[in-house]
Amino acid sequence: MPVPILLYHQIDIPPAKRVPFRSMIVHPDAFRRQMAWLKRLGYKGLSLRDAVPHIEGRESGKVAIITFDDGFRNVYENALPVLQEHGFTATNFFVANQIGGRNAWDIPLGAAPAPCMSASQMREWAALGHEVGSHTLDHVHLLDVPRQEASRQISQSRDALQDMLGMAVTSFAYPYGDENAEIRALVRDAGYAHATTTERRKALLGDDDFGLPRLTIRRNDSWLHFLKKCLT
Ligand SMILES: [Zn+2]
């Protein structure tokens, strides 16, 4: 059965101004309603790690994989309690050099500054059963940097997160969805088991483990729109 892999960024009250990337900030009430819908419809929300048996077709059942990019603190504050309430797990892809920092990669483009989780918040996220994935060291465009730098961004972020956590990091998300066969190979060689892109469709049996598609959930998605993304 095709599995939806949902992609969120920030869960917070969106700024009133029309700032860039405002559409990526989902209101906490909307997120709560979306998780409640999944539960009501019999879906289990799982991290990528927890959903591997479903992706590989070894287990069946209604599953939605919940992922967040960038490791924002507002996910810890506003989404984590909701996930706990529903008994769901999720994956957050952290920018290793911005743990305790902020969205430094987006601010030059006009985005509102937003803090990232601290190391202790990330550890708590992991201790509650949620997955920590990597999203490089600095949120770089992997296709625009030299191959050696791409390799460093991919492997050193894994090392850094593993050192902070004391556990294995096996999932990766390509910043901006920038990837090709060479980048996928670098991710595989660095020791990851899965990587997600921003290709928009559900994951199917037989998809490349290093090219899993995702469905972006946006601020102005209505509940109907959300359900369509998950169910159809
Ligand atoms: Zn990102």
Automatic annotation (TrEMBL):
- From which domain of life does this come? Bacteria
Q: What is this protein called?
A: Chitooligosaccharide deacetylase
What keywords are annotated for this sequence in UniProt?
A: Signal
Question: What is its subcellular localisation?
Answer: Secreted
Q: What does this protein do?
A: Is involved in generating a small heat-stable compound (Nod), an acylated oligomer of N-acetylglucosamine, that stimulates mitosis in various plant protoplasts.
The organism that produces this protein has a lineage beginning with: Bacteria, Pseudomonadati, Pseudomonadota, Alphaproteobacteria, Hyphomicrobiales
* Transmembrane helix among keywords: no
Task: Please classify the protein's predominant subcellular localization into one broad category.
Answer: secreted
User: What organism does the record attribute this protein to?
Assistant: Phyllobacterium phragmitis
Instruction: Please report the stretch or stretches of sequence annotated as the NodB homology domain.
Output: 62-232
Query: Family, per the entry?
Result: Belongs to the polysaccharide deacetylase family.
